From TrEMBL:
This is MurR/RpiR family transcriptional regulator. Transmembrane segments: none annotated. It comes from Roseibium litorale. Keywords: DNA-binding, Transcription, Transcription regulation. Pfam families: HTH_6, SIS. InterPro entries: Homeodomain-like_sf, HTH_RpiR, RpiR-like, RpiR-like_SIS, SIS_dom, SIS_dom_sf, WH-like_DNA-bd_sf.
Amino acid sequence: MTTDLAPQTIDAFIERLGERAEFLPKRLKQCADYVAANPDRVAVSTVAELAAGADVQPSAFMRFCQEMGFSGFSQMQKLFRTDFSQKWPDYGTRLAKLREHGTESPSALLAEFVEVGRASLENLMTSVDPAALQKAVETLSKARTIHLVGFRRAFPVTSYLAYAFEKMQVPSVLHTGIGGIRFDHTIQKGDAVIAVTFAPYSEQTLEIAEAAQRQGADLVAITDLVTSPLVRMGATSLLVVELDVGDFRALSASFALAIALAVSVGARREKS
């Protein structure tokens, strides 16, 4: 059991989680990833439900709570209930009601995606650190060239950023990976990289991000968890968690963040 004092705020909890996650044993790391991705569920779920979500035994989840400085699950849940009563609305209840009516019809499925999209967008206001967003805009505004790196589910986000930057005449390079062709060698000191990846994280994105740092470029990340490898690299990280309908996730919040970032950078560069 850890002798650390328990975090007094969610922000302090998230900071500690980010510092310790990569050093946790496998099962406790699963707990960390699950809590980072689903903070709203901690306040309203039992330890058994959270353990099932993390695919661990309840005893492992209890050890995770202690590792984070709490006497047990009840103390950790009390913190989340106090803090998230204002920050994180319980959208699980709303979605449960939608599912009671079935999802066989297209209109019912549309209603679910609209609901999770709204929830993701509202959560974005608390998941993105304003100071990190400001730093990201300043970094990108000064960059000689902005490199956009994101594959699989993240590729639509980087593609949109490339489109937006082109319209605002902001020099950028979209790394597509088409034909196995990579442009790592074009990243230079004075450039900046926007790396976008969500769990399970793209190895190609991480490799390019590491190469960019070695070459002296600045790194801005759009990712989902404080336990993301990009966060551990020291990137200026903008966190966005998309809720899902089954195993399908829309990109409502990711696109909102991307357009806000692009427009802010374009406006800043125009003034300079």
